[in-house]
Structures are given as structure tokens and as C-alpha cells.
Design brief:
The chain has 7 helices and 4 strands. The protein is mainly alpha-helical. The protein has one domain. 29% of the residues are buried.
């Protein structure tokens, strides 16, 4: 309990501050490259639910362009994900600005990944408990399949983390995350951004869960 309430937050502040100082040259370079490749603002901002469901603004390096069709509508995600964006995602460099969210207290180094607010109306009562703790830069679901797991598996891992949160578990997830990032393992399409494709996939998952309960 002491770790969950006090020590975890202290470690988040110390580690995120040290990481920001150490990685600041890399972030400056990526900001400049992003400004060129994305033809403008290199950062992506999106509202996400944090601890106790409190909404905060998550910041990442933008990995998709703002290209639009002749009618002014954004092109599909697959068309806006250019080579630069693919490199950012495959190396997880797009996540670096989230260190600012961690320092501010919106997030933790380790915890359930913060999903789009678009998914909130579809959560079950049990799934809402993933917000009992701060969302994380990485979590138990990410080191057990990352982006290639099903929604059901992700929520199972998230709730397991909430129930079993400890210093040793956080250490295990931390080092497994480094291993997976270096080896670029379990990298699939990302559906956490709240895109139309991701929301449609989530709605299908939720409908399947409702169908099971009604049987």
C-alpha cells in the first residue's frame, strides 16, 4: 500500500525528470524532423481518461500526417501513416513526450495504457476499474502481446495489474518493456488512438461480450 500511494509517484517524478534531461537532444531532433515531415506541428494531443476517469491531454510525437481528400476529409489512417511515422511507431519514439505527462502526474511509467475517451461508453463495470490507478507509458498488457492482443486479453491484463500492483511487478514490466522495444517485438496496428477503425473494432468486441451474457 505504501508503494502504491507514495513511493510509485516519487519514482515516476525522479525517473521521468532524469529521462527528459537525458533524452532532450533526441526529442529536439525529433521535434525538428516532425515539423518538416508533418508539415507543421510535430506533436499530437488527445484527451484520455486518467486515474479515477479524470480527463487529461496526452502528448505524443505525431506519426500520421493531416492529409485530406478533395472534400476536406482526413484520409484513412493507413494513407496518413508515412515512412517517418512508421519508424516512430516501430521504435516507440513517438511515446517520448508522454514523459511530460508522467512528470505532471497525469500518467505513471507503468500502468494500463490510456485509451481514447471514445471507448468510455462501452466499458463494463469491471473494465472501468482500470482507471483505479494512473495510466502508464507501458503496462502488463503491452509486455504480454503489446498491440497484437485482443481487447479481451488487454482488459484482463489491465485488471490483473490493478489488483496485483507492486514494486516487483513494476520492475518486471519496466525491464520487459525495454527488451521488447529493443527487439521490436509484438508490434501490430495501434487501435488506442480512437480512430474510426479502432472504435469499430472495439464496438465489435463489446457486442460479442453482450451476446455472450445474453446467451
Amino acid at each position: 500500500m505504501l508503494y502504491r500511494i507514495y513511493i510509485k509517484r516519487i519514482l515516476d517524478i525522479v525517473i521521468s525528470l532524469m529521462a527528459l534531461l537525458f533524452l532532450s537532444p533526441v526529442m529536439l531532433i525529433l521535434s525538428f524532423l516532425g515539423w518538416i515531415k508533418m508539415k507543421g506541428n510535430p506533436f499530437f494531443f488527445q484527451k484520455r481518461p486518467g486515474k479515477n476517469g479524470v480527463i487529461f491531454k496526452l502528448v505524443k510525437f505525431k506519426s500520421m500526417s493531416m492529409e485530406k481528400d478533395e472534400n476536406g476529409n482526413l484520409l484513412p489512417d493507413s494513407k496518413r501513416l508515412n515512412r517517418y511515422g512508421k519508424v516512430l511507431r516501430s521504435t516507440s519514439l513517438d511515446e517520448l513526450p508522454e514523459l511530460i505527462n508522467i512528470l505532471k502526474g497525469d500518467m505513471s511509467l507503468i500502468g494500463p495504457r490510456p485509451l481514447s475517451v471514445m471507448y468510455l461508453p462501452f466499458y463494463s463495470d469491471d473494465e472501468m476499474h482500470r482507471h483505479d490507478v494512473r495510466p502508464g507509458l507501458s503496462g502488463l498488457a503491452q509486455v504480454n502481446g503489446r498491440n497484437v492482443t485482443t481487447w479481451e486479453e488487454r482488459f484482463t491484463w489491465d485488471l490483473k495489474y490493478v489488483n496485483e500492483l507492486s514494486f516487483l511487478l513494476d520492475c518486471k514490466i519496466f525491464f520487459l518493456t525495454i527488451y521488447k522495444v529493443i527487439n521490436r517485438s509484438d508490434i501490430g496496428s495501434r487501435q488506442e488512438s480512437g480512430s474510426d477503425e479502432g472504435l469499430m473494432d472495439f464496438e465489435i468486441y463489446r457486442q460479442q461480450q453482450w451476446d455472450k451474457k445474453s446467451q
